[in-house]
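TL;DR need structure tokens for one chain.
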Amino acid sequence: MKKTLILVVDRDDDFGVKAGVQTPAIGLDEVSNAANLLGMADPEDSDTNAAYAAIKAYNEMKEDGMDVEIALICGDTKVGHKSDIKIVDELETVIKKVAPERAILVSDGVEDEYVFPIITSRIKVDSVKKVYVKQAPGLEGTFYLLVKILRDEDKRKRLLAPIGTLMVIVTFIMMIPTFINYYNTGETSILLDTMGLFILFTMGLLLYVYAHGMWGRLKRFAGRIHNDIKSGDLTVIFSIVALALLCVGIVLGVFAAFAPQDIRNGERILIFMSNSLWIVAFAYICNDFGKFLEKYIEERKIVIDFLVGTQMIFAVAFIMQATLDSLAMVFGYNTVGSNVIIMEFIIGFVFAAFAGMTQMSYKRFLKKEDAAEQPDAIL
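>> reply
TL;DR here they are.
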């Protein structure tokens, strides 16, 4: 008689996180204990029902005189490759100890398309049992399931975040022509046509924010800034200035791009990038300068990363400016001459070379200091 393994798979490790169960759990006693612990920790978790369904199948097959064993394996809270690797490791441990010839997979039916190929690659699966929790029919049951999904952070992120992102991208693209017409004509009635799209855009943005739990992050971030300001942290001031510069750069770029009326969209994009590039670059430098100054005041040390980073920012900015000017010339916008473009490329590469030389000089300096601190070898 072939030995059969009844296998319960919990891909997101609810048994470990909520009930503290160590897996793999092999045998009726261990799986029953795991089901009881998760049932007491979270009675509404569907993995509890899957475990009890597996125990029921085990008892029925035992009564029929079949050679059967039961086991529970879990993945990881970070569902993906890390979770699947852990499932494979635990499955191989179970197979080594039980030595089954076939298996019956029991799951809550949520992620069978991910789990099934992993299991079948290691052992022959004769049957898959999906366990669904019985709920009130109709609208009440649907509402219960939706509430359950929204309470689960991982499921909420995987379900709502893509929907919110898609709504934001699609509605924004659809609103762009209307905004361009409003800018050219100045008629406010045009904006009324986008009211429905704007509502959908706002809903999508709120869905994305809710799915990723950004409200909590914003509250923690605001609390941290409040504490830093009270403690006199200079980095906060420079970060605020950098953020202001970033906003100014974007606004100036937008106004410059939409100021001319009879130009193509490609030229608008180049004008926007050219007018916002340098202010954004200075915003980045300003933010880093705050960290540099705070480090120098506290430890009287010059952070070499700031010097190298500043030179690299100037290098990237000059090269990007030269690239934008080159594209403008290729497409016939003729903003600057070829001599200016060549000079911008040269200055950018010079800054990049200085950054590399500064980094190499600092590394040589560190090596000399380490050699000087080492004691002479004893012969």
